């Protein structure tokens, strides 16, 4: 196996693209990205210091465990997760055999089969798709090798635990940001895909907005992320409409383009993007005030600590789902 790590449409659209460096630098330098356990600023893992996500109660037995890790790809997001995994494992006597599936479900299944052949003590899978490695996971189950998942739960096969960003809290953070931007008075529209991936953020957003009586949702256009849906909302509600919560990057771009076309710089836009660190070159826009995003460093570090705790404690099962708090990048520079 390779890479084993011993671990002691328009000009308007181009204006709304962010770089990974810009988003992550902002979130790690004091914009609203919060540490899951402490509530303080999130910090990037560092191999020279003990990662903040290493839980002190993980016992050390003297045994070094071998863990096979299959990532989705070599994107900036998964690379950040990998670095956090390696930095965390260095402090808790794990050896990681890290592979990239390169977005190929068949390749990922082959990697899991290779981990089984290698007799790893555990497998950590970041599924390239929900169906990726389904049969191979069953083989790992039969071999009594515990399988953990990060980001996404596979459709079949038994896993010990899923470690993923807290989607409901993403919606909650977006609602809080918009309520603050509107000074607790105004009306909003939701814009974005209706797929299952955004049901958590939508529910979290709606539940939080219900706590702000001065804010109401005029339109739920979550079935589409096309620019015409944003334009329609602006046309229909006029000056009543004060903000958008956008459920993906396409919806965020659509809302901003519609605001530009309607000459509405007053509309506040807050975006949610589950793959924000994979974005192309972008720069902030006058309408876009904040972006809620998962923190790959936190997810990677947490996945390793959960897995290590399971191995060290002789199979004391963790929760079925371990939720990691998301970050929020405040593009206004305001303290909230």
Q: What does this 3D model show about the protein?
A:
- By secondary structure, this protein is an alpha/beta fold.
- It has 2 domains: 4-8 and 33-165 and 295-326, 3-Layer(aba) Sandwich (Rossmann fold); 167-293, Rossmann fold (3-Layer(aba) Sandwich), CATH 3.40.50.
- It is built from 10 helices and 13 strands.
- The strands form 2 sheets. Strands 1-3-2-4-5-6-12 form a 7-stranded mixed sheet, sandwiched between helices.
- Helix 4 (105-118) runs parallel beside helix 5 and helix 8 (227-237) crosses helix 9 (249-261).
- It is elongated, with a radius of gyration of 21 Å.
- It starts with a strand and ends in a 6-residue tail after the last strand.
- Mean pLDDT is 80; it is low at 5-56 and 277-283.
> Mind summarizing the main beta sheet?
7 strands, mixed
What is the arithmetic mean of pLDDT? 80
Domain count: 2
Question: And the CATH topology of the largest domain?
Answer: Rossmann fold
CATH superfamily of the largest domain, please?
Response regulator
Q: Uncertain segments of ≥5 residues (pLDDT<50)?
A: 5-56, 277-283
Percent of residues in beta strands? 15-25%
Rounded Rg: 21 Å
Based on DSSP secondary structure assignment, what is the total number of beta strands? Answer: 13
Q: What is the name of the CATH class of the largest domain?
A: Alpha Beta
Secondary-structure element sequence?
Answer: EHHEHEHEHEEHEHEHEHEEHEE
Largest sheet: spatial strand order: 1-3-2-4-5-6-12
Helix percent reads 25-40%
Distance between the termini: 47 Å
Shape: elongated
């Amino acid at each position: 196996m390779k890479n084993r790590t011993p671990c002691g449409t328009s000009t308007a659209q181009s204006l709304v693209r962010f770089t990974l460096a810009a988003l992550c630098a902002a979130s790690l330098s004091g914009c609203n990205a919060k540490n899951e356990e402490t509530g303080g600023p999130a910090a990037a893992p560092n191999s020279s210091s003990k990662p903040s996500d290493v839980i002190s109660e993980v016992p050390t037995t003297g045994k070094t465990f071998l863990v096979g890790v299959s990532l989705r790809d070599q994107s900036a997001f998964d690379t950040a997760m990998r670095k956090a995994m390696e930095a965390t494992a260095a402090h808790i006597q794990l050896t990681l055999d890290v592979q990239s599936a390169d977005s190929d479900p068949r390749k990922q299944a082959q990697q899991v089969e290779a981990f089984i052949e290698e007799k790893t003590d555990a497998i950590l899978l970041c599924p390239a798709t929900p169906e990726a490695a389904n049969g191979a996971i069953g083989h790992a189950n039969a071999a009594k090798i515990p399988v953990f998942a990060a980001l996404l739960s596979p459709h079949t096969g038994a896993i010990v635990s899923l470690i993923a960003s807290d989607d409901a809290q993403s919606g909650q953070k977006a609602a809080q940001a918009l309520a603050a931007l509107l000074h607790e008075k105004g009306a909003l529209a939701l814009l974005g895909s209706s797929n299952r991936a955004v049901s958590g953020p939508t529910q979290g957003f709606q539940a939080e907005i219900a706590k702000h009586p001065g804010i109401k949702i005029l339109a739920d256009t979550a079935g589409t992320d096309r620019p015409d849906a944003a334009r329609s909302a602006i046309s229909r509600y006029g000056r009543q409409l004060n903000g958008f919560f956008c459920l993906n990057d396409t919806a965020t771009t659509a809302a901003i383009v519609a605001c530009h076309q309607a000459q509405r710089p007053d509309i506040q836009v807050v975006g949610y993007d589950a793959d924000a660190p994979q974005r192309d070159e972008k720069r902030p826009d006058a309408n876009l005030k904040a972006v809620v995003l998962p923190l790959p460093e936190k997810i990677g570090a947490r996945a390793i600590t959960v897995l290590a705790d399971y191995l060290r404690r002789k199979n004391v099962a963790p929760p079925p789902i371990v939720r990691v708090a998301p970050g929020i990048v405040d593009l206004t520079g305001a303290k909230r």
